[in-house]
Structure formats: C-alpha cells, structure tokens
Amino acid sequence: MSDQIPPQVETFVGDCIGSIAELELLLLLAGDPSKAWTVEGVSRELYVTPAAAEALLTAMTSRGLLTHHVDGYRFAPRNPELVTTVEALKELYARRRLKVVEMIYAGPADKYQSFADAFRLRRKE
To answer: What InterPro entries does the entry give (predicted)?
Structure first.
C-alpha cells in the first residue's frame, strides 16, 4: 500500500476529528457497528470520566457519525461513504500513528492559514 494519505481521509480528519480521544472513540465504535455502547462502557474503555465520554459521544453524534438509541450509541454515519473513509483511517492509524496525530493537531485552521499565506504580498528587499 502507498504511503500517500488518501485525500478523503485527510479531509475527514480535518473536518471531523478534533482530538485523539475523538479518534479513539470513533475507532472503538467503528470496530463493531452492531454493538451498542453506553457512556459507562466508553468511559471504562477509553479511561476517561463518564462526563468526558458523554461529551465525546454527543459531539460525534452531532457530526452524524454515531446514532443514539435506548440501548446506547453505535457507529452509523449519515453518509455511508464514511464507512470506507473510517476504515482507511483505521488502517492509516495502525501504520502511521504519528502522521494521523499530526493531521489531528494541524487542524483545519492551519490549513486555511497556509492557503491564505500563499496569497500574502511581500515587499522586495
């Protein structure tokens, strides 16, 4: 497999993943989409407080990546194409963990700043 980062993965990370905790949550739930996860179960699995787990689950649900039912949360993206993107992200994270971490912490703000800087007018010295 190529060392190139698939563009859809890079875009997805920039748009939807704001922290390593969100990434770990997403990969946990995507690992078995048929399993319903409770706040307490996520809290134990990710070693975070229940309040933090609930905040993560709520954020990922509002982004359309998870669904919430009476029995818990499941990985069920609104856009079915995201299943493939998340699978590619999972493989990339297994192979190139530091690159994924860099992409998360670079965030979209840095990308926009780099784009804006390309149009900055500079004085000749």
So the answer is: WH-like_DNA-bd_sf (IPR036388)
Q: At residue 18, what are phi and psi to the nearest 5 degrees?
A: -105, -10
Q: Where are the domains of the chain?
A: 7-117
Residue where the block lists tokens 């993943």: 17
Q: What is the pLDDT of residue 46?
A: 96
Of 68, 70, 33, the residue nearest 53 (C-alpha): 68
Orientation of helix 39-46 relative to helix 50-62, angle to 10°: 110
β-strands 72-75, 66-69 pairing: antiparallel
Q: What is the DSSP string of 16-67?
A: H--SHHHHHHHHHHHT-TT--B-HHHHHHHHT--HHHHHHHHHHHHHTTSEE
7-117 domain in CATH 1.10.10.10?
A: yes
Per-residue pLDDT reduced to its tens digit, 33-79: 999 999 999 999 999 999 999 999 999 999 999 999 999 999 999 99
